[in-house]
Amino acid sequence: MRLAGQPDGNGAMFWSSFRAGVRQAAGLPSLVLMASLIGVGGLTRDIGYPIWAGVLSTLLLWAGPAQVLLFGSLAAGASLPAIAIAVSLSSIRFFPMVVSILPLLRGPGVGTGRLLFGAHFVAVTAWTEGRRLLPGLPVEQRYPFFIGFSIMVMAAATFATGAGYYLIAALPAAFAAALLFTTPMFFTLSLVAGSRTLADWAALGLGFALAPLATALVGQDFDLLVVGLVGGTLAYGIHRMRGGR
Q1: Cα(25)–Cα(44) distance, rounded to whole angstroms?
Q2: How far is CA 207 from CA 229, 230, 245, in A?
Q3: How far is the C-alpha of 212 from the C-alpha of 76, rounded, in Å?
Q4: What tens-digit pLDDT sequence spans the chain (245 residues)?
Q5: Do the beta carbons of residue 145 and residue 20 sit within 8 Å?
Q6: Model-level pTM?
Q7: Which of 76, 154, 225, 237 has its CA 20 to 30 A from that of 25?
Q8: Alpha-carbon separation of residue 25 from 136, 175, 194, 243 (angstroms)
Q9: Helix, strand, or coil here: 60?
Q10: What burial letters (b/e) apply to 140-172, b meaning 16+ CB within 10 Å?
Q11: What is the DSSP letter of 170?
């Protein structure tokens, strides 16, 4: 599809596509991330760190579980090298996401520097929506659309982190904890909505089936990585056996 109202010229096209990404993100995707990051802001306050530490963690880490691990480890008195290693290991799950979505962002004028910049924004919401929406866009519109979408959801999440720093005390504890589950719920529903082929459905089914086993065998640090590697490989094998391209 081509974005409606796209003006002529490379610069005009870039900003038109960028604004289209912002509009796409301004609804449910941003609300979901805001709900999740409110809890991170509250956690920052609970362990006695200033608001800017929570906001900065959203901008730099851009991963709710890694942020919870960061501040939880700080509260427990863990050493900084140990915290750095733990946070890095928790973010390994993003590597397959980055590898799978960067080819969609390549296009005219999108060099290595721009791809590395775009890679920073790859997280659950941007990846699921990017995989669903980018293939339907002309190649030259994909990168600015993705950047617009990603900056919008990051801005919303950053605002929510700061707001959560002050609001979390007014929320019931159970409700505040439940907010953290909105992102995985949205992630699952987006994957279901974007599934089209046998390989897509096989990957989803295998992921749900293998997740408890992987957690039991390798623990919570590497379970998603193992599930993705094993389940994705099996799903690809099923796809190949069925003659898929």
Answers
A1: 26
A2: 10, 9, 22
A3: 27
A4: 444 444 445 678 889 999 999 999 998 888 888 887 887 888 888 888 999 999 999 999 888 778 887 888 888 787 888 888 878 877 777 888 898 899 999 988 898 999 999 999 998 888 888 988 999 999 999 999 999 999 999 999 999 999 988 887 676 767 766 666 665 666 676 666 666 677 777 877 888 888 888 778 877 666 667 777 787 788 878 877 876 55
A5: yes
A6: 0.72
A7: 225
A8: 16, 24, 16, 36
A9: helix
A10: bbbbbbbbbbbbbbbbbbbbbbbbbbeebeebe
A11: G
The residue behind tokens 């389940």 is 231
Q: Which two tokens stand for residue 207?
A: 């992921």
Cα Rg of the chain, angstroms? 19
What are the structure tokens assigned to 165, written together?
A: 């720093």
